[in-house]
TrEMBL record:
<dbReference type="InterPro" id="IPR000683">
    <property type="entry name" value="Gfo/Idh/MocA-like_OxRdtase_N"/>
</dbReference>
<dbReference type="InterPro" id="IPR055170">
    <property type="entry name" value="GFO_IDH_MocA-like_dom"/>
</dbReference>
<dbReference type="InterPro" id="IPR036291">
    <property type="entry name" value="NAD(P)-bd_dom_sf"/>
</dbReference>
<feature type="domain" description="Gfo/Idh/MocA-like oxidoreductase N-terminal">
    <location>
        <begin position="7"/>
        <end position="123"/>
    </location>
</feature>
<protein>
    <submittedName>
        <fullName>Putative dehydrogenase</fullName>
    </submittedName>
</protein>
<dbReference type="InterPro" id="IPR052515">
    <property type="entry name" value="Gfo/Idh/MocA_Oxidoreductase"/>
</dbReference>
<dbReference type="Pfam" id="PF01408">
    <property type="entry name" value="GFO_IDH_MocA"/>
</dbReference>
<dbReference type="GO" id="GO:0000166">
    <property type="term" value="F:nucleotide binding"/>
</dbReference>
<dbReference type="Pfam" id="PF22725">
    <property type="entry name" value="GFO_IDH_MocA_C3"/>
</dbReference>
<feature type="domain" description="GFO/IDH/MocA-like oxidoreductase">
    <location>
        <begin position="134"/>
        <end position="257"/>
    </location>
</feature>
Length: 339
């Protein structure tokens, strides 16, 4: 990555900004957080950002600053298209929190805007940057594990009604765009898809359990055909008390690999084994930002490096769009099955 200090702006200083602010503090030698957009609670925003960061409710004031080369969009999902589109039109490289937006059509429009303006669009799907996940990708790409024979992804998370879904807009299509798949499990699904690819959704179920009162789903399951034709299974919920870390299990020709939270364990058929230890916390529970910022730091380094080096970031808009399309297909087929 270049040693040049990169001028950036953080658009949104709500709960979703917390790991970004922690990461940016770590990267302060190479990144200058010049602005923060706060359309409500400006005093709270000023307390959260460095003293040198200017806080404003005026997006155009930020975009008019020629020293701002990149922005991070950390506002609610339903605002992403309008805010990111303005930044892209101003020539700012844009890193957007997941999901791209609340509908597939809006997500596709956002990716199209980035292409039209010729600037980078990255998406905050940071699970790809955990050391265990990166080692698993290396092993798959090198052929050390052999061909994937089957894959199972479980996201057994917990969100309470009182502490999470009772808050305004949560679990609604208008604010979030979806339930457990698009809002919580999207990180694990994106990692899963990036590792094994998905050719088809064979069948799916979605439901809202009696545990929650919400518009969208808190349970989803799917039978999948992986990119190489092998079978796959996905189960995700926010109704499994008290919740535990997501688990990805790959049965391969020469080994079985298990990624639980951030920890990778590989057992080879010849008796060898290897492990990469990682964080157990992953976002389950009502304290939604109670996890290490390390993966955000790695994602930021990659995105800012992409800006400096003129290369695509690891998680492009197109990659995030492919994950959104998979989720949309699971939801659509689940609704059709229930009709």
């Amino acid at each position: 990555m270049s040693t040049k200090t990169l001028g950036i702006a953080l658009l949104g200083v709500g709960p979703g900004s917390e790991p970004h602010l922690q990461s940016l503090a770590t990267l302060a030698d190479s990144v200058d957080l010049r602005w923060a957009l706060a359309r409500s609670n400006p005093d709270k925003a000023r307390a959260a950002v460095p003293p040198s960061t200017r806080v404003t409710a005026d997006l155009q004031e930020i975009l008019a600053d020629p020293l701002v080369e990149a922005v991070i969009v950390a506002t609610p999902a339903y605002t992403h298209l309008e805010i990111a589109a303005a930044a892209l039109a101003a020539g700012k490289h844009t890193l957007v929190e997941k999901p791209l937006d609340v509908t597939l059509a809006r997500a596709e429009e956002l990716v199209g805007r980035a292409t039209a303006h010729g600037v980078h669009l990255g998406v905050v799907l940071q699970h790809r940057f955990r050391p265990g996940a990166q080692r698993l990708k290396q092993l798959l790409d090198s052929g050390a594990l052999g061909a994937v024979q089957s894959a199972v992804l479980q996201v057994p998370w917990w969100r309470s009604q009182e502490g999470y879904y009772a808050k305004a807009g949560r679990g609604t299509l208008a604010r979030d765009g979806g339930g457990v798949l698009l809002t919580q499990a999207i990180h694990a699904i994106d990692l899963f898809r990036s590792l094994v690819r998905v050719r088809a959704v064979v069948a799916s179920q979605i439901a809202t359990t009696a545990i929650h009162t919400m518009e969208t789903e808190d349970f989803a399951s799917a039978l999948l055909t992986l990119g190489n034709g092998a079978p796959g299974v996905l189960v995700a919920t926010t109704a499994m008390y008290p919740g535990r870390a997501e688990v990805l299990e790959l049965v391969c020709r020469h080994a079985t690999a298990t990624l639980e939270g951030g920890t990778l364990r590989v057992q080879y058929h010849d008796g060898r084994s290897e492990a990469v230890e990682g964080e157990a916390k992953s976002g389950s529970g009502d304290s939604i930002m109670d996890f290490s910022p390390d993966a955000h730091i790695a994602l930021h380094r990659d995105f800012f490096g992409a800006v400096a080096e003129g290369r695509p970031p690891t998680v492009t808009g197109e990659e995030a769009l492919a994950t959104h399309r998979l989720i949309e297909q699971i939801v659509r087929q689940g609704k059709e099955r229930a009709a």
